[in-house]
Amino acid sequence: MASAELQGKYQKLAQEYSKLRAQNQVLKKGVVDEQANSAALKEQLKMKDQSLRKLQQEMDSLTFRNLQLAKRVELLQDELALSEPRGKKNKKSGESSSQLSQEQKSVFDEDLQKKIEENERLHIQFFEADEQHKHVEAELRSRLATLEMEAAQHQAVVDGLTRKYMETIEKLQNDKAKLEVKSQTLEKEAKECRLRTEECQLQLKNLHEDLSGRLEESLSIITEKVPFNDTKYSQYNALNVPLHNRRHQLKMRDIAGQALAFVQDLVTALLNFHTYTEQRIQIFPIDSAIDTISPLNQKFSQYLHENASYVRPLEEGMLHLFESITEDTVTVLETTVKLKTFSEHLTSYICFLRKILPYQLKSLEEECGSSLCTSALRARNLELSQDMKKMTAVFEKLQTYIGLLALPSTEPDGLLRTNYGSVLTNVGAALHGFHDVMKDISKHYNQKATIEHELPTATQKLITTNDCILSSVAALTNGAGKIASFFSNNVDYFIASLSYGPKGASDFISPRSAECMLQYKKKAAAYMKALRKPLVESVPYEEALANRRVLLSSTESREGLAQQVQQSLEKISKLEQEKEHWMLEAQLAKIKLEKENQRIADKLRSTSSGQALGLAQENATGVNAAGREEASAKAVLEPAHSTSLLSDVESREDLIKNHYMARIVELTSQLQLADSKSVHFYAECRALSKRLALAEKSKEALTEEMKVAGQSISRLQDELTTTKRSYEDQLSMMSDHLCSMNETLSKQREEIDTLKMSSKGNSKKNKSR
User: Fold this and answer.
1) Gap between the Cα atoms of 470 and 234, Å rounded
2) From CA 134, how far away is CA 142, in angstroms rounded?
3) % pLDDT > 90, the chain
4) What is the rounded CA–CA span in Å between residue 113 and residue 109?
5) What is the largest CA-CA distance in the chain?
6) Separation between Cα atoms, residue 478 and residue 591, nearest integer Å
7) Beta strands, E only, 437-535
8) 23 Cβ partners below 8 Å, 6+ apart?
9) Among 146-155, 185-194, 286-295, which is the least confidently predicted range?
10) Where is the composition biased (Low complexity) (predicted)?
11) In this structure, which of 393, 468, 563, 762 has its CB flanked by the most CB atoms within 10 Å?
12) Which of 657, 673, 651, 652 has its CA nearest to residue 582?
């Protein structure tokens, strides 16, 4: 662990060193670039100074020229002033002298005007040059300031790097000291390891002697007991039953099932395509319901009518092939006999395609020759004829490769095993070609159908038939694409799985040997089934292990359950007795209640009749009509009052009875709850006692495991002795690495010193600038 930590530290330090070295190189490049930039700026400054000097010289020459011109103008003006009075005096002398003076004056004026213009132009040039010089000088000053700032930043970075380098050097020196201490301890451990290795070598010698003796015994037993080694010869080894690879068989059956589904879709699409093509011949270009079609189309429709007898066997052959691949068989090319039948059905279908191909081409030519056919429709018919030829060629190519794959199951020398992979890849390429051809047919037929639908003579029958043909062609393209992608996805598995064979051999020698092997495999399976006895149904082992603790800690043992059943039976008998007692009490209470009600009713009747008689005797002499009505009302009210009293008594009894019944139910529920809680607590106590026993057992098991772990620890310590040698090698490598690190650090210090000197020189130069 210590060496691993040291290695990790050194790796981190090496990474930091590489990072710092890269940063140092970048800084070197930056310093060199800045030096180049400063040299370029110096040259630019020299050029600008030279240009300034030239401009100043030109300015001086121009000022001198201007002064000369000004003096000349003054002289000319003086001469003019002198010539004017003379001209007035000598006006009379003659016109010739005046003309000469005017010409001279005009020449002087022109010369003066040119000099003035030249002076203005030179002033403008001087002003522009001065402005440009100021602008360039400001730019150079700003650039010089930025360069000084960058130089200061680089100097700060260099200082930081030097600090980091010094810190890393100190860390490495400390680590070196620690490593030296650890190396001493490891040397001591290495000495101990050497002693232990000597002991191990002695043990290894003893083991080698023991194993050599056992090997001699086993070889003698093999020579005496094994009479014949059938794996030595390939002819006999091919008859041995290989190891049963159930996963391989299930995978092959799954792949065969998918292929069967794809072939079924393809067969239905082909049936629809041929059937709807036959219907289209009967409709276009001549409708058979209106007029007779040509003999060529009649023959073509007759052949197309027979398509099911050629297409259906493809599905049947693939179904037989799928049924032949079971979990018990060995699926290789030598054992797939049903592939030959599928190949034969495919050849019969290709014969059918060859038979109908010329009629199909002639039928398309007949369509092109009809008056309804346009130039675009004729071009589509030509494209379709080429596509039909390609389709037949692709099917022929596919049939040849499938026939080659069927050869190993019938003829052993028909196809070499080295060519299996190339044949399978060619089958995938043929399927992709079939998909491409069907895409072209779908595209061209779609264009043809759209052109025909735009014709004025297009009937509804033709439109629906074309739609059906387009749907069947689309189904064909989809099916071809699915089969092609499915085969290309599984071709690697096919190539890898076909090398499956007997142990010690690469393949079966002949189909006869493969057939014999399958028979032997069936016999062996039957023998194993006969040996296997039917076992009694029991709990699975995993489930029993999972329920072991529950079964051990469960409280429902036979005695506990018997006690609980007995207690519950006693409670049930008591409750039944109490129930019968209370039923009898309830019946007696009902009888008493009925008698009491009858007695109260009789008493009320007797009192009501006595009162009526007394009233009749008192009022017998003088009773008018109003008195009679009052007596009759009283007689009616009294029995009503008696019935209301009776109903109040009955409702009060019902309330009392309901109250006592609810109280009885509540007490019984509380009693049952208390009983269940007591049983639950009793069960928990028993479970805790059993868990305590289990914990003691687990404690004993853990102590045994501790003993085993101690033994394993001692064994691991022995193994550690072997690993300490590697630590010695690692220590030597680390010491070499430290030496190299010290050398690189010394070089890095020298580079830092040179960088410091160069940066200081650059900073001084920049300051002087």
Assistant:
1) 56
2) 12
3) 8
4) 6
5) 203
6) 92
7) none
8) 157, 161
9) 286-295
10) 95-104
11) 762
12) 657
- Taking alpha carbons only, the member of 117, 460, 98, 354 closest to residue 452 is 460
The token pair at 759 is 């940066």
φ, ψ dihedrals at 269, nearest 5°: -65, -40
Q: HSE of 249 in the Cβ direction (CA atoms, 13 Å)?
A: 15
CA distances from 738 to 16, 540, 733, 745 (A): 15, 64, 9, 10
Tokens of 182: 């650890």
**Sign of the four-CA dihedral 230, 236, 238, 241:** negative
Place of tokens 């090319």: 333
* pLDDT, position 624: 44
Q: HSE-up of 379 (CA within 13 Å, CB side)?
A: 4
Three-state SS string over 385-425 comes to: HHHHHHHHHHHHHHHHHHHHHHHHHCCCCCCCHHHHHHHHH
Cα gap 292→234, rounded to integer Å? 69
Give the contacts of 759 (CB within 8 A, at least 6 positions apart): 31, 151, 154, 155, 158
CB neighbours of 615 closer than 8 A, spacing ≥ 6? 631, 634
CA 519, 520, 521, 523 dihedral sign is positive
**Selected residue with higher pLDDT from 28 and 253:** 253
The percentage of the chain sitting over the pLDDT mark of 70, rounded to a whole number, equals 73
Q: Across residues 30-38, what is the average pLDDT?
A: 78
* Mean per-residue pLDDT of the chain: 76
Residues constituting the chain: 769
